[in-house]
Every structure is written in structure tokens, then in C-alpha cells.
Amino acid sequence: MAKRSSLSIRIVEGKNLPAKDITGSSDPYCIVKVDNEPIIRTATVWKTLCPFWGEEYQVHLPPTFHAVAFYIMDEDALSRDDVIGKVCLTRDTLTSHPKGFSGWAHLTEVDPDEEVQGEIHLQLEVVPGPRARRLRCSVLEARDLAPKDRNGASDPFVRVRYNGRTQETSIVKKSCYPRWNETFEFELEERATEALCVEAWDWDLVSRNDFLGKVVVNVQGLRVAQQEEGWFRLQPDQSKSRRDKGNLGSLQLEVRLRDEMVLPSGCYQPLVQLLCHEVKLGAQGPGQLIPFIEETTSTECRQDVATNLLKLFLGQGLAKDFLDLLFQLELRRTSEANTLFRSNSLASKSMESFLKVAGMRYLHSIVGPIIDKVFEEKKYVELDPSKVEVKDVGCSGLHRPQTEAEVLEQSAQTLRAHLGALLSALSRSVRACPAVVRATFRQLFRRVRERFPGAQHENVPFIAVTSFLCLRFFSPAIMSPKLFHLRERHADARTSRTLLLLAKAVQNVGNMDTPASRAKEAWMEPLQPTVRQGVAQLKDFITKLVDIEEREELDLQRTLSLQAPPVKEGPLFIHRTKGKGPLTSSSFKKLHFSLTTEALSFAKTPSSKCMNELNQWLSALRKVSINNSGLLGSYHPGIFRGDKWSCCHQRDRTDRGCDKTRSRVTLQEWNDPLDHDLEAQLIYRHLLGVEPALREKLREPSRDTEAGAEPTGPDQAPEDPLAQLLQVLQDLREAHSCSSSPTSPPPSEPTRLLELQT
Predict the structure, then answer these.
(1) Ranges for the C2 domain (predicted)?
(2) Contact at 8 Å (CB) between 62 and 34?
(3) What is the per-residue pLDDT across 618-663, written as a single tens digit (0 to 9) for each?
(4) What sign has the CA pseudo-torsion 335, 535, 538, 477?
(5) By Cβ atoms counted within 10 A, which residue in 276, 457, 484, 510 is the most buried?
(6) How many whole angstroms separate alpha carbon 136 and alpha carbon 139?
(7) What CA–CA distance (Å, rounded) separates 222 from 229?
């Protein structure tokens, strides 16, 4: 059994931020840290005091994390970025909001004495003395201290205070991983209530020493325990009064913490087998379980349920069958062809998740080059005459500004070129489309054609495919390329308008150029020749796309299964140092790396366009190493230069690492390895919430005759699938109850002696 914690983070917007630039504005972005480890950096929104980001992230993290902090920064091109303020949410705060923290939070001042990090290794014990018992404090080492000096390190020493006496360790120069191994003793006052305070400081020759953090130990608890040893997390000094919160602006956030206790795989097998059995019988009808789940799923959680179910069946090799079952349910209740798959049903949400999981690389290969070209050109594009601003265009020649007609014509030419290039790339990509995506679209095409036969519904099967491929996959990626990892930054206002118009054109093609789509925006008429040509191209593409037989599907899947899919790829800069001594020079070489579950490789040229952020590379490396039995528990963050490690100054090259391996904080991506037990646990959690509806369903009089189905085994009585589901839920509830009350509590961090200053 393991506890899994995850954070759903949505950084919405900021307002009333202070101006940091001489222009009276700022260039804000947000950095998210979990226990002082940076994991997320949003895009920079230029020249505004009220930035909008709207960025969403899923973060998996250890259950022992303490806080998540949001730092609002002002980006500067020529100097160090300015800190505007921060919002800090502790684990206790998030736990007190079961449905998530949502709303505006005031930014607070970033105090250097509160920005501490790292841990200190202490050994505390009560020993007998000549007159009275003595308190012995051994300061052994510290790790991951905050770098306070310009050389990227600190000169740390430790100050130990108790009962009016103060003692200090020696100073370790230029290290964030110092080792002292020094012991101090104090006479223990029997009636004294004062705590033992251990403070870490950075020594400075000229200026005042910098605070690195402290640990406060409850001596009364130590009297009982007699001794305590372990790593203690350094705490900030919060004794100083804070500056007024209202003058730094506010940040709107949506943050939800989810803690799931995941049982061993065997506990979830009855639930998984029950769901898989129904999906396998989908050709005989939709069954009872999936319709019940769809019926009882609210709008708020439909996307989460759809994603969890999709990933569960994807891991069982039944994603296509599961989606086919949902297609049948949708078609049964749809009477008008023009409303098919237009609502946010379980089928629509599941198909969206499926395309993101199985087709993201395909999307990048088709849409990526077009998006890059739009960003590089930065042309002014506008088709709506009421929105044309000639002043934004400049002059077409030396003197004469462009007229409105010229702006509209050039805009139409630009959009026709982009749309034509996109459709041409799509037409050539049949073989590049993943086999499981092609097979799923084949099932969708056949089901819709069976439900709506006849010449009057000739385009309906094509529109059913394009409603997902174009309207719910390609168009959203074109409008918001950063959210689909097509770009590292948000588009500016001019580029956003071009992308929006291009997405509208793609939607018109996906709607098969129906009169209704043309009537909405008549000013899109200049693109009609390209749209009509695109409809013919798209129909030909779909015809070839769904023309895949079972044998070809298996062959393609077998070929892909032999290739380890990349978990992360993109450019990295390799630092190279030339020469020694004062004339040492350095350079950076750009190489393109590809990380799979089997190897890390590189080449001189890129194979595809990907984001290039350090935290994503670290996250990807942690994911592929999670099952590595040889993973080290500690490592040296520095290098062995000369006769010692640069990080901790130890002279033994084979000495154990001075920092612990961080392998628990990861960003969730669509290409993450599937976690079958976690998905099953999340489905169980959802079904537990609708258990009253399940019991009510079983009490319906009409179910008495339906329950008399064929026996499930030679010695088993006939049983309703919904009754089986109820029994599975009860068994899982009992398993959770047994696991939550163990005979001996699991080991925890050595925090029982700590009293944090507030």
C-alpha cells in the first residue's frame, strides 16, 4: 500500500501588481516551488500590471511535502529579475479545503529570513553529568542550504542557543553541503522551559551574516525520549512583523490537493475485471455498468472520470472497445444528426483524453510547423472589416499607408497559405497516424453510418470524425499552442488573432462547409475557395484513414511496440570548459536529446519540436527511473576537482553523497507511463461517491427480472452486474479500513520534537 499525493494547479491571473519598470509597467511571470524546489514557470506576460495566464498543471509529489509557494517575478532583459511577491499555501491549508482552494490571495513580501531551504543532521541526547544531567547536541552536517553568496554557495556555521548560553561551530567556506561533526553540551535545568534553538548562518566578512534557517527543539520531550537523531528541516524566522499585504497586488489561484491510499494491485482486480468484462461484450450492447457511470457522473467531474476510465482501459488494451461502447450509447439517444457529439458527454470527454494520450506526437508533427511559421512571421492579419486598424500595419511603401482593402486581401492570402499548408500536411499523414487512433475512428465512422444511412446523411460520418479531430483537437491546439506544448510562450495579441482566424477556418473545413457555418461570420468569405478545396481533401483523408483492417492494425501496433516511445525530447546546452587556470574559457554546445524508458540519446539535429525546460527534463528522468532498483539514495551535486568534492569538500572520492536523491516531484504529462493501480483507485473513489444511487438502482422493481441472467460460474448463482459492482465496492472499502489501521504506524520524519516558530 502506498500513499499518492497530487496537486491540481491553475494559475489564473494577477491584478494590481506594482510597476517594476521605468515605463510604469511590469513583465510578470510566476514560479511555483514545492518545498523550495522550482517545478513550474509560466510564460511572461509583457507590459501589464494585470496579467492573465490561465495555465494548468498536474504535479505528483511526496505525501510528506510541507508547502507550495507561488512567486510573482518581473522579467528583466539586462539585469536580475525582480521579485514582486509571493503566495504560500501550506499542506494544512490545502487539506482544510477538500474541494480545493479557489480565489484571490494577496501577495506578501518576500523576506530573505523566510526564504530558507535545506535540512540539518542533529544528534540530541540527555546524558548524566557531575552535578546534574546535561543536554548534548551534536551538529553533524547539513544539506541543500540556500546559496547566499555571489559564487553560488555559502559560508555556513551553526549557532546553538540554550538557557542563555550560545556556542558556535566552525565556518565551512564555499559549501551548501557542510560537515561539522562538532558536539556541544549544556547544563540541563530541571525546571527550565526554554527550548533548544539551532540556527544556521552564512558568514560574511564585510556585511552582516545571512540567516539560513533554524530548528527549535522541545527539551521537555527530549527528557522523555532521552535521545533523538535525524535530519531536521530548517524553518524560517517568522518573528518579524510583515509588511502590509495590500500594496503588492493579488493572485487568483485554483489549487486542489488529492491524497489517495493505493492498495496492492490484487485488491483492484475484481473491479478491473468487472469493467473489462462489460467492455469486451460491448458488441452485444452497452451493458449496465458504463451506462450507470455515465448517468451518475456530474458535469464538474466528467473530464476526470473520462480520463481515468480511458487510461485504465488503455492499459488493458481495451481503449478502442471502451470508446466504441460510448459511441453506441451516444448514438442511441441522438435523433438529430446535427447534434451528434456536440455536448460534453462522457463519450466526448473520453475521446478528447484519448486523442491527447495517443495522438499528441501526431498533432505536433502536423500542426507544429504551421504554428512555428505563424510565430516567426508575426504578420498583422484581420478579415473582419470592423476590426481592421490600418495604423497597426504601417506603410506598404515609403510613403503610402495600406488601405483597408489591401489589409484584408493580404490577410486572406496569408490565411489561405497557412490553411493550405496544414491541409496538405494532413493529407499526407495517413500512415503517420497511430494505428489505435485510426482503428477508433474506423469504429466511429461505421457506427455513425449504420445509425444515419441514406444519401441525405452522406457527410454525417465524416463530420463525426472531424468533430473530434478538427474541432476538439486541432483547433484548440492552434488557438492555445502553449497548452499543447507546441510553444514555450503564449502568443502576443497580433499572433493570437492570426491563430484564432486560422482555427475558425479549420472549424469550417471540419464542419464540411455547411451553410450554417458560413452564415455565422460572412467576412470569412475570402477563404471559401480554400475551405471548399479543403473539404474535398479532408474527406479523401478520412476515407483513407478509416480504411485499416485488423491485420494492418496489429502489424502497426507490433512495430510500434518494438520501439520505446520517447518520454521527453528537445534541445539541451552542454557546457564545455577549455584550458586551466585564469585563462580558462567556456562554451556551450547545443545538442538534441531524446529520453525513452530504455536509454538517453542525443544527436546534432532535432527530430521534433519540444519544450526545453529543466524541470520537465528532471521530471521525465525521475519517471523513467522510478522502478530502477539501483537508484542511489544520495549523490554529490558537485564535481570531484583536485583532491575533494566541490560541494561538501570531502576528500574521499567514493564517499557517500552529501545530498539526497529527489525522485518524487514530477509533472504530469500526457505521455506518462500508465499507473493502473492509481487509475483503479480513482475510479473506485468516484464509484464510492455514487454508491447511494447504485443502491437505489438495485431497488428498482424492474431489476428483479433483469437479475436472472446466466450464471457466472458452475457454483455461482445468477447475479446482476450492478450487484457485483456493489459487492466489489464493499470489499475495497474493507481493504482500505484494514490498511488504515495497522498494528504499528509507519516511520515518519523526526518532527515530534519540533516546535515551529509562528
Answers:
(1) 1-105, 116-232
(2) no
(3) 767 776 776 677 778 788 888 888 888 888 888 888 888 888 776 5
(4) negative
(5) 510
(6) 10
(7) 11
Q: What is the Cα–Cα distance from 633 to 61, expressed in whole angstroms?
A: 17
Q: What are the cell numbers at 10?
A: 491553475
Using the structure block, give the residue that is written with the C-alpha cell 460491448: 282
**557 phi/psi in degrees, rounded to 5:** -65, -35
Three-state SS across 63-127?
Answer: CCCCEEEEEEEECCCCCCCEEEEEEEEEHHHHHCCCCCEEEEEECECCCCCCCCCCEEEEEEEEE
Contact 22, 82 (CB under 8 A): no
Rg (CA), the chain: 31
Joined grid coordinates for residue 578? 577549455
Taking a C-beta distance cutoff of 8 angstroms, is the pair 669, 357 a contact?
no
545: nearest Cα among 475, 465, 451, 453? 465
- Using CA atoms, how far apart are residues 214 and 201, in angstroms rounded to an integer? 9
What the block records as the C-alpha cell of 295 is 448517468
CA neighbor of 433 nearest in space, from 544, 359, 502, 375 = 359
H or E element at residue 682:
helix 676-689
Least confident of 78-92, 155-169, 695-709: 695-709
Residue 597: half-sphere exposure toward Cβ, Cα within 13 Å: 12
Give the residue carrying C-alpha cell 530548528.
215
Angle at 740 between CA 739 and CA 741, to 5 degrees: 95
User: What is the number of residues in the chain?
Assistant: 758
Query: CB within 8 A of 256, min separation 6: which ones?
Result: 7, 8, 94, 97, 99, 100, 101
Write down the pTM of the prediction.
0.75
